[in-house]
Amino acid sequence: xxxxxxxxxxxxxxxxxxxxxxxxxxxxxxxxxxxxxxxxxxxxxxxxxxxxxxxxxxxxxxxxxxxxxxxxxxxxxxxxxxxxxxxxxxxxxxxxxxxxxxxxxxxxxxxxxxxxxxxxxxxxxxxxxxxxxxxxxxxxxxxxxxxxxxxxxxxxxxxxxxxxxxxxxxxxxxxxxxxxxxxxxxxxxxxxxxxxxxxxxxxxxxxxxxxxxxxxxxxxxxxxxxxxxxxxxxxxxxxxxxxxxxxxxxxxxxxxxxxxxxxxxxxxxxxxxxxxxxxxxxxxxxxxxxxxxxxxxxxxxxxxxxxxxxxxxxxxxxxxxxxxxxxxxxxxxxxxxxxxxxxxxxxxxxxxxxxxxxxxxxxxxxxxxxxxxxxxxxxxxxxxxxxxxxxxxxxxxxxxxxxxxxxxxxxxxxxxxxxxxxxxxxxxxxxxxxxxxxxxxxxxxxxxxxxxxxxxxxxxxxxxxxxxxxxxxxxxxxxxxxxxxxxxxxxxxxxxxxxxxxxxxxxxxxxxxxxxxxxxxxxxxxxxxxxxxxxxxxxxxxxxxxxxxxxxxxxxxxxxxxxxxxxxxxxxxxxxxxxxxxxx
Length: 584
Ligand SMILES: [Zn+2]
Description:
By secondary structure, this protein is an alpha+beta fold. Helices cover 53% and strands 11% of the residues. The protein starts with 5 loop residues before the first helix and ends with a helix.
């Protein structure tokens, strides 16, 4: 568990104030001694995400996320504990001495990155080789009409149609088979255990991360064969859900706006036409992590997906994710071309620049899609369309916004605004009631421990488990109690706890033999969800008047009885089951 010394961790936490770190992701407003903002971990319209500078912690009253600066970084950057510490150390300019396990991890990552550089060089030299790369060059410059400068700018390459060219080249440079497969550059044959080139007969797009490292490759076929794209899967140096193609270029040009495309070719065409703020996801649909990454660099995103049905469906999803992180989002009206690449080729970059000024809002996008689906000259289809549009309007959070759209729709569909308003109101009321009902159900379920994924034993005996959580809450609030109890030999043992979760947390607390410690001291041994839970348990105690040690002793007594009860009833269940079997 000890990975780097506690002193260093303390230093890292000290030099990364929670207020500072959170502010680089979330816009915070002062509220008394605390700070408030929109939660980056769940979608919300009113701020319930709170930062407490006094205790260097955060807590979201909406989704329950909470913890210290390290758990914030773990969650928002999707890192494990050691990487989050490393991230913060780097941020504060602290050098940390690493232990062996970590060294090995960094070593693996470095080997993959070094190998990727060699592979990128290799693919590039193949492309410029008149014999090996002719097909690739023909495809890029003749079929896709890419400028030589653009091909160089993106470091494009070619993987010849051969099973061993790259792997032989890399093994000459001293890379082992397992390393190549680690980097997703080679597959290992099931027949003879030998490695073979993963990318073959494809043009190659190297993928660079923000810091300019070659982290992955995309390979595209030059005809219609499948799969059209082959991409590096996750490796020690790469996570596709967290990287965007060309973000390394776009980040310098996207303060106001990013253009989000579907494919590499669109991005390259756009950069070639002077739109250097274009990026694409890497052979995957957009993820919440992508949305957060974009949010770090820009204010608004223009979705520029293919005009076919799949593209429009993807745009629908992107709208949701992007607006959830608070990005202003609009969609391109691509008329007369299937994608941005084709549009620029047919109409030129100036026309494309005009398109960027005349984009559609989320509402227009949905409205148009509904109108496309129905033939509104037919009465029943028109009614269906109106119903669907009313559903969209009802989801608009502000009453003023709803009113504006009601006006637009009334005019376009030729019906009275009053009628639409009545229907929309009915829907918003119904939705509100449903939310309230769900919330009540959720609260009831939560009190019984149903659906509890952190403390999975809760449901088995809610009485014992909630008593136990009270005990943990008090101990987290007053670690000195445990210290005192230990001295008097009155401390409970882990076996006195009922749930596995309780046993685990108590053991951790017990091992930290100090009068004062906080949740952060347990951080490296816990998941972010477990930290959320502890934070919540501790917070719920701070609101109560009595947290005296006497109460702790009482609760331990109650826990004992509650446990016995559960043990009895368990025996009872077993007995009954047995009896049942005996019955004819
Ligand atoms: Zn939240």
